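Lecture 7 notes: from sequence to structure.
We start with the chain below.
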Amino acid sequence: MQLIFTPGFSTSSIVTDISGRGIGMDVVKNKIERLGGSVKVESKPGFGSTFELKLPLTIAVYQAMLIRVGKERYAIPFTNIIKNIEISTREVRHIKGEEAIIINNKIVPLLRLQRVFQLPVQEEKNISIVIVEKVGQLIGIVVDQLLGKQEVIVKNFKSKLLENTRGFAGATILGDGNIVLIIDVNSLI
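Predicted structure tokens for the same chain:
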């Protein structure tokens, strides 16, 4: 069974430009072991194979919405997201000195991440908003751009310097090698 984890191993009888040159199981096994996990394979002739992946509890996999605020990318876990909307700046109301929008006759306060992260605020005609929920209350998080859905592996901050950082649940490394901070909606609001 361990043969399939050998670099360069392929089950394709003919290697072409299209087949037999993908990421091998050796890469998968090495990545999982670097995270502190393991890979187990069981196979029965005529029935197929079972791959069991074990990851440490310190690692969580989330579906997240990648967003851009200023020049930086962040991720918001889908567990907090109700929906995404784009509105005109004319739809923003000022209630008791705070920005809000009205959705289905409900007042939804706005939280601008540019201000929270102390980034320069840019003027815009349209605003992208991620509607999140915290204890039954809807809040609109204003972002510069929605970049799409992504599965992320969350790594918690283990450093004493970073563990009390407000507003972030941890970080992840994207496929392009860039580090993205994961927003902790509950501690931000």
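Points to note: The chain has a mean pLDDT of 83. The helical segments are 25-34, 113-116, 185-188.
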